[in-house]
Amino acid sequence: MAYVALSDAEKTFILHGVEEDFRCDGRSRRDYRPMELETGLVSNASGSARLRLANTDILVGVKTEIEVPDPLTPEFGKLEFFVDCSANATPEFEGRGGSDLAQELVLSLQNAYESPLAFDYRTLCLIPGQQCWKLYIDILILECGGNLHDAVSLAAKAALFNTKLPRVTATLLDAGITDLIISDNPYDCTRIGIDTVPLLVTVCKIGDFCLVDPSAEEEVCSTVSMVVSVSMRNGEAFLSGTHLTGGGAMHRDTMRNCLQLGLSIGEHLDTLLAKMLRQEQERVGPKRPKTVGFLK
Amino acid sequence: MLRVTQVKNSLLDGASIAEELYSTPQDGDNFFESLEKPAKEPENLAPRNTFIRAGVVTTVRGSAYMEYGNTKVLAIVSPPKELIRASARRMNMGVLNCYVNFAAFATGELESVPERERLLSSMLTKAMEPVVCRTEFLNFQLDVRVLILDDDGCLLSTAINCCGVALVESGISTYDLITASTACIYRDHVFLNPSAKMEELLWKHRTGTGTSTGSDSKDNTSTKSVQEHGLIITASLDTFEQIAQCQQCGYLSPETYMKLMDYTLAINKSLRQLVKGVLTARVREQHELDLREKAESALEDQRLAEVIERLKLRGLDEFIQSNIKEDPYVKKQ
């Protein structure tokens, strides 16, 4: 994560705040910072979203391509993640500085989306064994203000919700070759179901307490954090990929607490995100607010 | 679907190649059917047959070789070296880098090797960070290299175990001994220490799980509970019951997650005894070697002392005379 220099006194102040359940910015341990979410900003992508979580700014674009499915999973489409840590975010990302962080984010996203129960790869299938959609999810980190895992997964989910795949009809030619016809009408499209798409929740351990949505300063104070990937299915929360990060260790009981905190927060976050996305979609015509964009 | 007809191989004197070239989704099912299924609740929480030996490579100080069933791994710890480009964030901690490499013959498919190497390296670094006292070598970096000689599942956990032993052998201070193990669940069966074939089944044949029969299962999903599948790798430091890393993939309910984690923690405990035994044996062996060396040098000292004593008795002149040799190039007058 982006490095913030903190003195011992500042660290102690943050630690005491966490113990009192009253953090530096006035939040409790279970609160998120305010979020701004917009979809459909990038005209060249099939779907896009921009998320601002206090100082963390993420822009996600989804591009589509037609590919041949893997012979072992003939009815599955493909997903590919790419994270770009822009040098605008911190000078540390200049050159190859951000590649470690980018790789970590890509790996945790890949891990979370791996299971066919978490993301229904069948919806991306065109002709089993012959043609499928491949989605390129390109994530651009414009500003780094802590809690990147959560912000990136929220933005990716919103961008997937916004993704419009053109309707495809297939005609069978001679010798079993199929020809795909992509609809000319830009409004004739299909959407991707995002009900079970996982969200990552970082549960950060500072002192003896666990908290969510750490700011960049709080991340410096934490010894270990747990990234919990929560996928909602039939109203129940499932785990689709968790790991520890931050170079520390924790007790089994602490881990269970972290897990429970992460699951309850993830559940809440998921319902809220779904609600907000639906609201934004319904606002059409003059009621739709002007897109603000990411440069403001 | 994809079936390759067997071609007679002229090189093999008309014999056909036994192994099939391509696997199909159906093969996964067949393999699972043929598999000996463990009980739903495994009672025997034991590691596989394990062989560990510390100090196998003489060119570096810390090295270890480990066999975990058929999985064979070699780990090397090179001494800390100074950071070339020190940045502010690294000032208060030493840097640990782990690199995992597959030997060319370690695995059947070569396409996915670079990606797996990257994934394993990153996970291994995360797992080893908590155990090394990184505050002791500020501004230095420690490189740990792992070579995988044979892959039969549980790669990451075996690599963690092996690195733990190699770190102790190299004399890098650690907070505790680290041990790791793997458990997975597939179609309601819990597999401890899954083999490579089992892990492949989990990842490659993903169609086999959950909604396997297409349309009719779609109606059932609301009533039928979700079929969980997933894999857990836990690395623990048992003195204070700390968990250094717990990586999970797949799709699990929180209860199953905790259950699988407890299984792996139990295996870690018994592995820890083994690692402890290996390390104490190694120290004892080294101690014996040292003793023998000491005894030998003492003997040598004694011999020299005797020589000196004898010379003293015979007098210095005689000693000098006995040591003057005739110069062969100077002719006697």
TrEMBL record, chain A:
Subcellular location: Cytoplasm; Nucleus, Nucleolus
UniProt keyword list: Cytoplasm, Exonuclease, Exosome, Hydrolase, Nuclease
Main location: cytoplasm
InterPro entries documented for this protein: ExoRNase_PH_dom1, ExoRNase_PH_dom2, ExoRNase_PH_dom2_sf, Exosome_comp_Rrp42_subfam, PNPase/RNase_PH_dom_sf, Ribosomal_Su5_D2-typ_SF
A Gene Ontology cellular-component term: nuclear exosome (RNase complex)
MF terms in GO: exonuclease activity; mRNA 3'-UTR AU-rich region binding
Recorded superkingdom: Eukaryota
Gene Ontology biological-process annotations: exonucleolytic trimming to generate mature 3'-end of 5.8S rRNA from tricistronic rRNA transcript (SSU-rRNA, 5.8S rRNA, LSU-rRNA); nuclear mRNA surveillance; nuclear polyadenylation-dependent rRNA catabolic process; rRNA catabolic process; TRAMP-dependent tRNA surveillance pathway; U1 snRNA 3'-end processing; U4 snRNA 3'-end processing; U5 snRNA 3'-end processing
Membrane-spanning segments: none
Pfam families in the record: RNase_PH, RNase_PH_C
Domain Exoribonuclease phosphorolytic: 32-166, 197-264
Family from the record: Belongs to the RNase PH family.
Protein name, as recorded: Ribosomal RNA-processing protein 42
Originating organism: Drosophila kikkawai (Fruit fly)
Automatic annotation (TrEMBL), chain B:
Domain of life from the UniProt record: Eukaryota
InterPro entries on file: ExoRNase_PH_dom1, ExoRNase_PH_dom2_sf, PNPase/RNase_PH_dom_sf, Ribosomal_Su5_D2-typ_SF, RNase_PH
Chief site of localization: cytoplasm
Transmembrane intervals: none
Keyword set, alphabetical order: Cytoplasm, Exosome, Nucleus, RNA-binding, rRNA processing
Compartment annotation: Cytoplasm; Nucleus
Single biological process term from Gene Ontology: rRNA catabolic process
GO MF, one example: RNA binding
Keyword RNA-binding: yes
KW RNA-binding (keyword) present: yes
Single GO cellular component term: nucleolus
Domain Exoribonuclease phosphorolytic: 48-172
Family label: Belongs to the RNase PH family.
Name listed for the protein in its UniProt record: Exosome complex component MTR3
Natural source organism: Drosophila kikkawai
